[in-house]
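Input (structure):
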């Protein structure tokens, strides 16, 4: 920041999976109770795992396999690759010169990546008083709650592709073919029929919000039965249903942002982020961890990010000086 390499005009978030130092042979089923008579005699990685069993983030789901060498690591796999234990390193990067502003080590789950982004953004705002106007990321961060957090709580423009499954590819009507009427709180089909969420009444008032934070709008059965467009609308069900997110207004804001030139520029700036991770694996050779536990992974990820920032500082802020045709490094580069 003192060298002027951090502009604070936009940040990008990205994460990759790094294999943990945990073999698949020393593993037990996740639902098998862990027996440890004296936790003080266990290794540090095992003690950290036992202390974090009640943590809501790491203990929300029971893993199907637990490594005895590094129980905090998560089993993951890619297409055509056997499953392996791994951690995820999350970077928060200023896109002006590719400077890493924060690092967070998490389990290799998508939900952990999203929560780590909120933590890093809050930490950068607290430590450096930087609240960038836009956040760049891939589709993994394009959930509706994530967009709502950025727009409503942080006033950050989400330059992130929406996680959208409303468009159909089988030739039937998509949700975009239905018109939304805000005042009436209903959808209108291409034939003018109403889809409402309050067709069924209850003695006890209900919010009608599902666990997935959606509100389901349904058409009347008599309308669908005699509709001439039923074959193109809901050929396999009796009535047509549309699930609308409670954050749909924020999603519409994200759709409008995706049409701007600044959004397309942000997509190009993602290359700086991807280059950092390519450098992390190909040059720094951080393709497998050497330390155990989440704290060990955090130490390795933080050291690697520090090295990458120092290399960037030496390249941009401390250029080579030439003396009589001989190129000599500056004191900053030697250090």
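Output (sequence):
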């Amino acid at each position: 920041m003192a060298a002027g390499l951090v502009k604070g005009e936009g940040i990008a978030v990205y994460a990759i999976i790094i294999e943990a130092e945990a073999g698949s042979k020393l593993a037990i089923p996740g639902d098998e109770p862990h027996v440890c008579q004296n936790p003080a005699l266990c290794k540090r990685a095992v003690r950290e795992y036992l202390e974090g069993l009640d943590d809501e983030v790491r203990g929300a789901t029971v893993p199907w396999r637990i490594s005895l060498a590094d129980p905090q690591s998560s089993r993951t796999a890619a297409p055509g690759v056997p499953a392996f234990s791994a951690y995820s390193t999350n970077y928060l990067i200023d896109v002006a010169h590719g400077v890493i502003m924060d690092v967070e080590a998490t389990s290799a789950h998508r939900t952990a990546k999203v929560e780590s982004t909120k933590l890093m953004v809050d930490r950068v705002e607290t430590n450096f008083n930087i609240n960038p106007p836009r956040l760049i990321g891939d589709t993994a961060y394009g959930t509706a709650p994530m967009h709502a957090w950025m727009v409503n709580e942080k006033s950050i423009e989400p330059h992130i592709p929406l996680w959208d499954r409303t468009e159909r590819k089988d030739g039937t009507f998509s949700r975009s073919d239905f018109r939304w009427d805000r005042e009436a709180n209903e959808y209108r089909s291409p034939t003018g029929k109403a889809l409402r969420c309050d067709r069924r009444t209850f003695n006890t008032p209900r919010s009608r919000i599902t666990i997935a934070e959606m509100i389901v709008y349904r058409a009347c059965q008599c309308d669908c039965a005699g509709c001439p467009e039923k074959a193109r609308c809901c050929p396999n069900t009796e009535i047509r249903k549309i699930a609308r997110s409670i954050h749909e207004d924020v999603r519409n804001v994200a759709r409008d942002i995706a049409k701007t030139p600044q959004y397309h520029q942000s997509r190009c700036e993602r290359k700086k982020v991807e280059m950092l991770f390519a450098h992390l694996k190909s040059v720094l050779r951080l393709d497998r961890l050497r330390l155990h536990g989440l704290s060990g992974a955090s130490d390795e990820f933080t050291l690697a990010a520090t090295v990458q920032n120092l290399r960037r500082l030496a390249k941009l802020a401390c250029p080579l000086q030439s003396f009589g045709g001989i190129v000599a490094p500056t004191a900053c580069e030697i250090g």
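Notes: Residues 175-246 form one domain. Residues 281 and 287 are 5 Å apart (CA to CA).
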